[in-house]
Write a structure and sequence with these properties.
- 2 copies of one chain form a homodimer.
- Chain A is an alpha/beta fold.
- Chain A is about 35% helix and about 20% strand.
- Chain A has an 8-stranded parallel β-sheet. In chain A, strands 1, 2, 3, 4, 5, 6 and 7 form a 7-stranded mixed β-sheet that branches. A two-stranded antiparallel sheet of chain A has the order 11-12.
- Chain A is elongated.
- The two termini of chain A are about 40 Å apart.
- The interface between A and B is large, with 47 and 47 residues.
């Protein structure tokens, strides 16, 4: 047996490892390292060389007798099937006879939900408890979690513990795991405006997110180039703003499917409707929404950000975000607020007049704040919380206490974290994890080495950093290349946000990540290679 | 009507355009530019606004009466079907009734092979004439070529001329094209050793190569990490040197299929068996082939390049390359010869002794040359020509006159071209086109802007540059990401090597390439996007 001393917090590792330690663990350790590749690494993990076999004919994932969840919990039932298939391949191949059970078999994984409400029909949230305990021993393994969300994380870990032996038989070693995420918000941003992402691609990436214990899909759904979201209230937005009104849109049922597919995997869907900038595509469908730009004293025919001086703009936003607040169940909406270009506002005589009336002088950031402030009030009235890009905070807009500020500008990132948390706001970090910026070689290591709390601040400030996001902006990715470009590079961010701060050994991470990416490939995700080598099961698609 | 004055060589353009010119061609030009996107751009091209319709029920690709090829030419028959399906989609969908033919229809493309031997069952070669003439006019279009190889290029161009009108109907404009490649050798290097590339991936990329008029598949089939080629003579090479002896190998029938699939598309397959370096994987199966490295006075257990001092090495190479020369029909074999590390040779006392005996002093490049010289003689005896990486030339090895030297080192590339051609050798350029080196943004433009003849030298020297290759080395690519990483970045190289030297307008290239990549996507190739935008038919896979 061996014990991952370098990862387990010392207090636990020393006592427990001692108890389990014996003989020839050096060779065994190497052997086990090659077989088991947990990603992200659990907080507390110990494993022995004692191995049990799993037979597709006899092994079952079941609800524990004591569990508050049962067969009516379709979220778990679906997860049981999904992980059974991950472990054994397509269900249909296997007989259902349960005749032969041998002594060294693991016959079941009991899933035990301990809190009175398992949350089978609920949605994950920022407050969700994702912790779980997993004990693998004969004849049963037991996965204990307060609710279904922790159980989902534990099922993933269980499936990662299973390995094929020399004869292709599934084995699992005696193991004890106690696990929980370091950060509550672990997100992936995908951009469906610069390129339309077919539903199939989004769902596949939600699947991959679950394999990496990500729990937030930040859906940057619309932007300047296209507006693929079909609004029931304002159908003209996509009719005139999408790349194509039928083939390049998300119908209400598509959106529902994304949300439900994500929910089944413990993933929150936070939509971003970025204003007042990044809104060119909105202007096609909604007359007068955008500011007309001027060339001298005449309109140039081009348009700038949302027109902040018209009441109609706010009336539109009120109705629009009322719909959004109902379509998306998450408690948060991302309101954007980044990169507002003032040149069009400056060119417009009506805007200049308004600036004068309001006493803004020539400080257009005040006009931006004026708009954002009213928008935030509109969204707050829907009872939703909001996330914003850092500029909104930087410009001194008054924010609700529960606002999440997303720090994305790489330059002076530490200073920004200090300022945002110093002002008492929760924050998430995406600046070091813009995965659209590709480069030659193993850039995952750069993402891996980031320490999100490495900024000057008090413990209270550090606690306000609730997580981070890997962002794959859409300039250069679509259905053809998004998935391999995201995985396993985003996996580096996944471990940074889940595992203990002390998990920083790049060499060890490489060994595990190589196997984790092969696991993703085996499960149908075209995750690209880290370096020279091969997977037992190569990607079958194109 | 309009005339692409900026591309057509002036002597032709002026006279012909004049004849065709009339009225409102500015608006039409914009319209046509949006519809037609030839890639690579033909040498001489003129098109009018007169459009003909193509119906899947009536349109046919047929052998011209005068053609030396007929229905027994399966290469052409297959090509007719392939291009019919590219134009109209799956054949099965369409009825075969030919009842309605309207005046404005194009009813057929007649393919006229003019030389007495159409080469239906032959292989393309360095000397192959790929030129063709294409005339589209009612009621028939005519494609004229000396042999099937030119016809294949013309069929691709014909299919690129077809565009869907507002009603989704296929149209083609009155057009005259006279086309031929600027360079004879236009290659893609794929590396199936660092990662195994499933057959499906290789075939898909041959398909994409044909869409871009590439005509050489440089198959870097084995290297240090793995030996996937199954040798009939030495089966232990792959049994012990492949990543896996059954799942990660190319069987003789796989190799045949690659060669035949390539042949059907006018593509030569040049295998590379790189020695004496890059041979770690060879050593697993062949005892004593590699040089044992020493640590002080004892063997270290590691191995270096092929052992150049043993006769057995040359006996092995004689038998091995005898097989290779029979398996691969092309007149050339690539023998590698790059990056030989001398440290292992230096460490070996027997090698040092041999150096002394031969009077090489301590100049190990002399030993390298000694090996290569003998290897070249061995291969020459098989009646094959050979290609080598530039080091072989740099080290002063005596080369056969028809040797092709591949210039790959970016540093001092112009100087190398000057030296190689100055010594009278033909050369191909790959240095500026190492597509494995990725970077953020539109790096295709950098590849596009390369002018291969931009080095100091006489006209005679320039003529010795017979082409180039886009190389996608395998460190970071496998089945999951190879195809989108290669296309459309390699398309930039395709146009540089096919089109006239004067075709250098990056803006115009961008417009055409955006559409060309959508065409590849429509045909099932996951070519990645150049920038923000969309395709009418997005990629359906994952």
């Amino acid at each position: 047996m061996y014990c991952l001393l370098k990862f387990a917090p010392l207090f636990l590792a020393v006592s427990v490892c001692h108890g389990w330690l014996f003989g020839d663990f050096v060779g065994k350790q190497k052997e086990l390292d090659d077989k088991i590749s947990l990603w992200p690494l659990p907080q507390k993990f110990q494993s022995s060389a004692v191995a049990f076999k799993l037979s597709p004919a006899s092994f079952q994932i079941v609800h524990a007798k004591e569990s508050s969840a049962g067969p009516s919990c379709s979220l778990l039932e679906n997860a049981f099937r999904r992980y059974f298939e991950y472990i054994f391949g397509d269900l249909k191949k296997h007989e259902k006879s349960r005749k032969k059970v041998f002594d060294s078999d693991l016959v079941e994984l009991k899933v035990w939900i301990t809190s009175s409400d398992p949350e089978c029909d609920g949605y994950p949230s920022l407050q969700t408890d994702e912790s779980y305990q997993l004990s693998v021993d004969e004849p049963s393994a037991v996965l204990k979690a307060a609710n279904v969300w922790g159980a989902l994380r534990g099922l993933e870990t269980f499936s990662q513990l299973v390995y094929e032996d020399y004869y292709g038989v599934n084995n699992i070693n005696k193991t004890d795991i106690s696990d929980f995420p370091r950060f509550a918000h672990r997100g992936i941003l995908l951009d469906s405006s610069r390129h339309f992402l077919p539903l199939k691609v989004i769902l596949a990436n939600l699947e991959a997110m679950a394999m990496n214990k990500f729990n937030v899909f930040h859906w940057h759904i619309v932007d300047d180039p296209s507006f693929p979201y079909i609004s029931r209230t304002f159908p003209e937005l996509s009719q005139k703003g999408a790349y194509h009104p039928f083939t390049h849109v998300y119908t209400p049922s598509d959106v529902k499917m994304v949300i439900e597919f994500a929910r089944m995997r413990g993933i929150r869907v936070i939509p971003e409707f970025d204003t007042p900038g990044h809104t060119q595509s909105w202007g096609n469908g909604i007359k007068d929404l955008l500011t007309p730009c001027f060339s001298g004293s005449t309109p140039s025919g081009t348009f700038g950000p949302v027109n902040p001086i018209l009441n109609s703009s706010y009336e539109f936003m009120t109705q629009f975000f009322k719909e959004i607040s109902m379509v998306f169940p998450d408690a948060y909406i991302h309101l954007g607020g980044d990169e507002v270009d003032f040149s069009c506002w400056k060119s417009n005589p009506d805007v200049r007049k308004f600036m004068e009336q309001q006493g803004f002088g020539t400080d257009y950031s005040k006009l931006e704040s004026f708009y954002i402030q009213r928008l935030l009030d509109i969204v707050a009235a829907t009872k939703k919380g909001y996330m914003v890009w850092q500029e909104v905070f930087d410009n001194g807009v008054k924010l609700k206490d529960d606002t999440v500020v997303e720090v994305w500008i790489g330059n002076k990132m530490e200073e920004e974290l200090q300022n945002v948390t110093g002002a008492g706001f929760t924050t998430i970090l995406s600046a070091p994890w813009y995965l659209d910026y590709i480069s030659y070689g193993q850039d995952w290591q750069r993402y891996y080495k980031v320490e999100p709390l490495n900024f000057p601040g008090t413990d209270a400030q550090k606690k306000l950093v609730i997580g981070g996001e890997a962002c794959l902006w859409g300039e250069y990715v679509d259905a053809t290349n998004l998935t391999p470009r995201l995985w396993p590079r985003a996996s580096a961010v996944a471990e940074r946000l889940w595992s203990d701060k002390s998990v920083t050994d790049v060499g060890n991470a490489y060994t595990r990540l190589v196997q984790h990416r092969c696991r993703m490939v085996k499960r149908g995700i075209p995750a690209e290679p880290l370096f020279v080598g091969h997977c037992r099961h190569e990607y079958k698609g194109l």
